[in-house]
Amino acid sequence: MYLLSGVLDFFTSLNGIFYTLSYLVGGIPFGLIYGKFFGGVNIREVGSGSIGATNVLRALKAQNPKLAKRIAILTMLSDALKGVVILMIAKAFNVSFEAQWFMAFLAVFGHCFSPFLKFEGGKGVATCVGVVAVFLPLEAILGILMWLVVGKLLKISSLASLLGVFCGVASSFFLHPEIPHITTHTPLVLMMVVIFYKHIPNIMRLIQRKEQKVI
Questions:
Q1: pTM value surpassing 0.70
Q2: Helix axes 186-198 and 157-175, enclosed angle (nearest 10)
Q3: What is the pLDDT of residue 129?
Q4: Is residue 100 a contact partner of residue 147, using CB atoms and an 8 Å limit?
Q5: Residue extents of the structural domains in the chain
Q6: Cβ partners under 8 Å of residue 149, min gap 6
Q7: What is the C-alpha separation between 142 and 197, in angstroms, rounded?
Q8: Contact 128, 80 (CB under 8 A)
Q9: 55 contacts 31 by C-beta, under 8 angstroms
Q10: Quick one: DSSP state of residue 50?
């Protein structure tokens, strides 16, 4: 009874409600929704099976290249903003910074292991950039710049994403040796670990030089 009471207290507390919302909102598979609605395609059955923007582009490109680019951009923005929106609401309710950072992690975790897709999901990059931008905009910008440069030069989405995330997280150790309000880099590192874990198949293909380019 005490355990049940404690669980109920947690999920009905302000932090517990926002933690739950962060995970659930983070898990919304916008790429899958847009792919089916705009293109009639189940992107989980195409290419990598990921619900992210790159696979949306790959799935819709054959039938309508212009539409594919627009939907891929829409997917990327939606994935980035879903974490931002819930954090902005939390700020309005004066949720602590420690709780907000945990919410940021849960949004990324929810995208990667969506409760709506039997705990499968995307790679978490766009969602990570969105939530990090709320707290550390300069690091987010540096990560985006790295992603753009590598993507433009090499046209390998996974490599651009991995280097972009690494650049953003690594730069935080120099720009903010102590993260404001929480002093620790743990949430950033955990997000990077989850993202790299989701990229393991891509990393293996990169090592084998078999990773496809986005043309």
A1: yes
A2: 170
A3: 97
A4: no
A5: 2-207
A6: none
A7: 22
A8: no
A9: yes
A10: -
Q: What is the pLDDT of residue 62?
A: 79
How far apart CA 25 and CA 92 sit, in angstroms, is: 17
Q: Which token pair is 149?
A: 């440069």
* CA distance linking residue 15 with residue 29, whole number of Å: 24
Identity of the amino acid at 154 = L
Which residue in the block uniquely carries the two structure tokens 């009905």? 12
- 3-state DSSP call for residue 68? helix
Q: How many CB atoms lie within 10 A of CB 177?
A: 9
Q: Point out the residues of the chain with pLDDT beneath 50.
A: none
Rounded-to-integer distance, Cα 79 and Cα 68, Å: 16
Which tokens go with 4?
């049940």
Whose tokens are 């290249």? That residue is: 65
Q: Which stretch of DSSP H or E encloses residue 175?
A: helix 157-175
Q: Cα separation of 13 and 96, whole Å?
A: 13
* Contacts of residue 145, Cβ cutoff 8 Å, sequence gap at least 6: 167
pLDDT the model gives residue 61: 86
CA 176 from centroid of its chain's CA atoms: 22
